[in-house]
From TrEMBL, chains A, B:
This is pyridoxal kinase. Coiled coil: none annotated. It comes from Saitoella complicata (strain BCRC 22490 / CBS 7301 / JCM 7358 / NBRC 10748 / NRRL Y-17804). It comes from the Eukaryota. Belongs to the pyridoxine kinase family.
Amino acid sequence: MPDEVPKRILSIQSAVVSGYAGNRASTFPLQLLGYDVSALNTVHFSNHTGYGSFRGFRLTAEQILEQYEGLEENGLSCRHGYLLTGYVPGEEGVMAVGQIAERLRNERKRMGEGLMWVCDPVMGDQGRLYVSQGCVEAYKDIIRSADVITPNQFEAETLTGLTITSLPTLRTAMTALHEAYGVKHVVITSIQLPSHPDSLICAGSTQTPGKHMHAQFWYQVPKQPGFYSGTGDVFAALLLAHLDAGSLAEGGALQIVVRKVLSTLSSILSRTRKGMEEELQTSSTDLDRNEKEEKVRVIRAAELRLVQSQEAILRPPESGWLEPRVDWPEEMN
Amino acid sequence: MPDEVPKRILSIQSAVVSGYAGNRASTFPLQLLGYDVSALNTVHFSNHTGYGSFRGFRLTAEQILEQYEGLEENGLSCRHGYLLTGYVPGEEGVMAVGQIAERLRNERKRMGEGLMWVCDPVMGDQGRLYVSQGCVEAYKDIIRSADVITPNQFEAETLTGLTITSLPTLRTAMTALHEAYGVKHVVITSIQLPSHPDSLICAGSTQTPGKHMHAQFWYQVPKQPGFYSGTGDVFAALLLAHLDAGSLAEGGALQIVVRKVLSTLSSILSRTRKGMEEELQTSSTDLDRNEKEEKVRVIRAAELRLVQSQEAILRPPESGWLEPRVDWPEEMN
């Protein structure tokens, strides 16, 4: 039995030495699921920025492009049928990633091969932009070439100029993303709605040209207390993995894929929370700890238990509570 | 059932975007085996240097130290009970790694915890040094603090000033490494001896103070035609993983660990060779390819099938042919 040709992903994201964020969060789950992952790191920090302090450096747009050119020169770039992109520092960096996506797609086209680009337009969270306005404009430009985008609530609002406050406005925002950018698949993560105070909503939409309506769905996931870095990066990685494994037929498919992703992610978070509680118990004897040290102690303990969650990554647990919803209430006036 | 405390490894090695070398070769097998791996990358290249051309950059000694200091500042460094080090560019870089090892060991000591450092003194291969003489001197200094060293034949010769041409001279070299540097465990990889022209020899030695002889053994492995980048890095990573899992009792233990490592590595290489042959068959239609392109085509095809070898990493296959040898012929005069 001949081995299959390796499935190769080029993943352009941030990297940390310790803990999980960016490529460090995405690579292992994808490798475990059988993908050869080429990781082009856009920043190299000692740890994720949530700690408050970190050391390291960012790559310039030229350095990002240079690493890609090394791949081109050795006939390595065109082997990647999948592109996954996350945090990129600066407007020029974002534009360099857009250029890489275009060059890779053209190179694949000349070979008679396709490319699937999952783009996480990392710009901000919880009402706060952590990139420049120039970055936002650059993303508005480059996501037109993406096949799937995975903004969080704030990023979807930033890209559309709309405010998501309800299921009807969420639906309107997804439709607006299809219409403004021509992206086929949209998944909006971590949505908080006043109508569902104890849940996070995750919603998806597949463009169905010629039909009256896009195929749109939403899931309701119980909120986990605390902040866990890298969950968005794991989400995008698993989405790519299962999108490829599943059929990409019109309608239906995306909601099955997102269900698998949420099931795995929920299991990772439960395990992380359990490990975190144990770690905080065993390390809580020092009463002299100041406020900053206490904050860092909690952040350390909240690093994802990713290598410990192999079973949940390989086989997303059956999650009866994860019911896809395709009912959308009308906006009340 | 409470989860075990994560086993954390700090791995200081090179990194490539595409393919397998340094941290990119070591990280996945260790993660698969349940270790949390913190990867501090010493160089960032598009691909391994065997391609002839590559793009990217090296970290300065200051940049390497700075990333480590970020970990110290957030209480992250001391969580690593294992240190794995490989290629480091430049004499100052090697000394920075020695300094990190010392700081980490002292920090662990203050906590009442130990550290196991597996040091691969990457300096050259096949009779050719690819680092400066200053680097060699720096390694001679820092390996005194290592618990395990994994030089290849040329590196063992460089560190001892001896020439390995036979089983007796191999044995003498291992003893010399214990005596000159005080390192407890020595494993020499990829040894070619005129007496065994179709094999590579891998030999190990555990220092047994107070006893007349060290516990020394050797394995004979069939040569695989071709060059496969990253095998030394996978070897050192698996050695660390199984050394920890196995008992480190005097004598005996190291040879069982090395057998597991050779068994997994041999399986990875067989799968890589099979995949390589298939790839070269399907891509061999272009007759206009020049010599350089042909060379690069072969190198691309020889990238390790690492993510495809999960079974062999998790469960080293039974290898009846891998018989540990503890018989050492006398040197003939």
